[in-house]
Amino acid sequence: MIATQLPALQIIIPLFAAPIIVLVRRSELAWIIAVVANLMCVLVAWKLLGLVNEQGIIRYSLGGWAAPTGIEYYVDSVNAPLLLLVAAISAIVLLYAYHSVKKSVDSNKHYLFYAAWMLCLSGLLGMLITGDAFNVFVFLEISSLSTYMLIAFGSDRRALTASFRYLVLGSIGASFILIGIGFLYAATGSLNMLDLAQRIPDASSERAILVAFSFISIGLMIKSAIFPLHAWLANAYHHAPITVTAFLAGTATKVSLYVFLRFLFSVFGTQYNFEYLLFNVILLPAAVLGFLIMSVVAVFQTDLRRMLAYSSVAQIGYIVAGISLATQAGLTAGYVHIINHAMIKTALFMSVGCIIYRLGHAHRPSLDNLIQTMPLTCAAFIISGLSLIGVPLTVGFVSKFTLIGAAMEKGWWMMAALVLVSSVLAIIYIGRVADVMLFRKQRLPNPIPQGRNEAPLSMLVPMYGLIFMSLYLGVYGSKTLAVASEAATQLLGGFR
Amino acid sequence: MSPVWTLLPPLLVIPFIIGFGERFRNLREASIIIAGIWLLYLNNQLYSQFVAGEAITSGELPLLSYYSLKLSVEPMGLVFGLLASFLWVVTTVYSIGYMRGHDEKNQTRFYVCFSLAIAGVMGAAYADNLLTLFVAYEAITIATFPLVTHPGTDKARNAGRLYLMLLMSGSIALLLPAIIWVATAANTLDFVPGGVLADVGLSQSATAVMLALFVFGTGKAAIMPMHRWLPAAMVAPTPVSALLHAVAVVKTGVFVLLKVVTYTFGIDMLSTTEAAQFILPVAAFTVVASSLIAFTKDNLKARLAYSTISQLSYIIMAALLATTMSVTGGVFHIVTHAFGKITLFFCAGAIMVASHKTEISQMKGLGRTMPITMGAFFIGALSIIGLPPAAGMWSKLFIAGGSLETNNLIWIGVLMLSTVLNIAYLLPIAINAFFAQSDDPKIQAKTQSGRPMAVEWNEAPFASLWAIVVTSSVCILLFLFPQPLMSLIGSIQWR
After folding, report:
1. Does A385 touch chain B (CB under 8 A)?
2. Is residue A481 part of a domain?
3. For residue B178, what pLDDT band results from cuts at 50, 70 and 90?
4. Which domain holds residue A313?
5. Which of A434, A464, B77, B144 sits most deeply, having the most CB atoms within 10 A of its CB?
6. Which domain holds residue B322?
7. What pTM value is reported for the model?
8. pLDDT band at B454, cuts 50/70/90?
């Protein structure tokens, strides 16, 4: 009985947790409800993944209204792993968040914070699970609005401008998506993705489809912060509460990328000339320039959050580069990096969160010899940093190996070479931080207090949990690769 | 027995090292020596199983879909594994004397990183495919980085930075794509006798580029211009310079190249095409140029560092010449150079501990107070130069023979020129130590009759001295009895 309702539960649990949290209002209780709801989400996602592996695609008609009229939830091997990923990342960060939020957010607003978190989570999960184009927009708005709110919780007043900038750009992106969906509806008369996929080839007006395609692509490129449409990201990541940054870095852009993949491959299919144009003329240069320029920019940042934010844009560039290859190997590489980068970046932001918790800032040049006072946090940062560089036995290596292999297989040697250049840049920007943490002698007027001053255990444990998970998947990379290659097959095969 | 077991002793000893710590330092060092002997025993087991003709492989760990981590035993790796584990024991004994005599800080961290590096070397030695070799290669880089920065001074930090940047950027930007290229071209990363690239249709220029990526990407092999880290890393404590920068780290570099040439390209492929001809001149240039630079260095460790760079390029040349004889010589040279150079480094450290001298110009007449050390130095120098009665002669002979086989006399010329330079920058140190006048009035004090006064010996601590005697005697023993080693190397399957 419950098993058949799982797709709905995936969304309903966090969606209902939000108002309950608002009613409860007590900070601790709010946190506990959020954690419990989130853990249930993880469980549901786990079950769904198991079901998909067992019996293939799950189609679920919401409220019993059959597709294409009703809204349909559609779970296959592409989105099932991502559902688990998003729910798990959110759960880990939420477990970690308690102390950090207590310190950085006003205590009378905690319930709002956790309620917004739950809404954001349900929006993200909804975008992943839904098989309805308009429903994607609805969930996108739910997650975006709550994200603006979460960012505005930042302790710094600049958080407000950051949130506002994101609001403006995010709304532009969302409107573009809406316009695109409108055109699709006009041209085909359907909103269900499977139905769209069937109708688009016989649509009367190819121009309308082209317009729809362009609008949706641009909108999703903004939302997934693909260079050069990434302007909102750095400020938002910098000024939001660090827990929110950790959460968003692992989930928000990844979910938008998923939707992008869904539209590109499943809905529009790969038979269009303009797709070819998009891949080779727009996406590929954007991806390559993105990971090169943003890695250079990251080198010159002095705030760890900004540095990691620009590095995120660069890493999204890797994912898009893999996608733009449009081959089985390329999509596998892009998809596996969605998973791997989510884990790496979240862990990195979590370690920065520990630093901020103790020092109140994340200004690189002032982290002199931090290893003495916060050894575990520094170790976490360095391990995750090595993963970002792509040192073997980390998940980053799995991604990089697959991506470069895919580029070489297609004969795009230049791209393979540029990926490597950008990896060397990653060595530099991570190395600069490690250098200060490990070796710099104390020399500033406000030295870091001496003696062991580690972040609370409630922050360290979830962080190391995530790091061990990513190390495990770095050693058994074939597991994630198998999942990714399955997803790539599914995407290239279109809806079945 | 699975070769994975060789990873166990160096890893298992780490909790003991940390647990005993500075408080029970005798126990700490005893546990390392026990682990070292155990490791040597395991490697010896592998050797006897291999000689008995058993195929020895480990299980697989699927790191990437088609490519797994896997260990197996073949002659080249066996030579390297035996060498590294033997020298680990000797170096540990040596460093007990050195580190205490020198009163170094953070010795626990030092020994932990040391053991990790040895585990990495074992992984590299028995790697069954390029992926495993690459993983071990990177592990060694990371494990040895804290050893380079060990003194904690600004100079050490800069050296560490250079070390990490050159080695890691080289391996990620050049070596990794070369490996992935092999994977896409041949669909396998395994080491197969005769190579896997022979009939995948790579053009000659593509082969040359790929080979160049391997040679320059393997920064640990220190071919110019990737050599800068090596002299800089000499700020590390001498036992580190000795084991890691004369044996483990640099030899992993050339070991990678020898393996790649033999089991990935295949010597037939390289010797029939011209691919290697583009890189051979660079290796030859490195041999001569770094010998010339060694001349200009007055600091003993710096001179030894440049000598190492030169000797490593001998092995690179041997690999690139790609005849059975030259590669045999290359593998042999890993061993002979290791024993010769480690002796020299040990001596440099002993001189530093006992008489606090680092510059060659101060070492005149030192043979009077440190006769054993300087005698060993002489033997080590002979081995590096390639003169009898030291083992270096054999390996040089083979490499020279290999270049004769290719009918290209210019490489022989390079070897001879370098040998002359070796004589000129190494032997005078030993000769001056015994025969020149010391600037130190205490050593040079004379009796009224004009005869030199008897001076007391001022040797390094016993543990260090013991290690020096062992390594220098091995230099001679290998000259007298090269046969077991030769037959082991001779069992490499070339095709």
Report:
1. no
2. yes
3. very high
4. 281-496
5. B144
6. 3-490
7. 0.90
8. low
